[in-house]
């Protein structure tokens, strides 16, 4: 019961705060209306978490799922515009991460409807469906979003300083950030495929996702944090990087244990450590830091 409450609180945070804040960071103008309306659209989904399984909870979850699918429907048009603009077959790494962020809530929303209805979607246990919801709000949406933001800015020296030349992040930081922006979406997709294929495929996805998130953490620490103008923002970035290094190690341990039979944490323990750490230490701290960085940039360009 305590774990269910914890997971519900984490998911509620993702629905009501993380997604709309992230949309503003992707494109403050293009997603302005969606971000402003999102808490209202997400409220039924948050309510469904606290209702008993059944028709009322499933209907409330379906209203939220409709919003997430509406958000995902914007990804193909965005991809087409990027291809028209650049002529490249594949999107740039930062754009690939953003596209992943846009479609991830739809996976979470679909799992939520099935779990709240008590329906074993694709044969998955209801507990797995319940954990898919926070996973694709945080490992899907937030992780991909932050990887994209890091990739956008890495390699430009101290962040958004007018006098920044070729500086700390300009060497190894940029390739590392590009790896993160591609590997986080790839790892997320492989983990999803692993749900269907088996534990060993999920382990491959966990390895790819973990290396990508460690690249995000390292680039944040070395390339983004030093350029922040105030101590609070630097502290938030440092916290997000440090927590991410630890929580992804737990994820790798769990996936290895599932695939090989070695001793590993239980899902309950993972929710209380990996899940809570990612939600508060990584996602929340990252979004708060990037909001402050964005506000600093707007002030400097006025």
TrEMBL record:
It comes from the Bacteria. It holds the Pfam family YndJ. Keywords: Membrane, Transmembrane, Transmembrane helix. The chain crosses the membrane at residues 6-23, 57-77, 89-108, 128-151, 179-197, 203-224, 236-255, 267-290. This is YndJ-like protein.
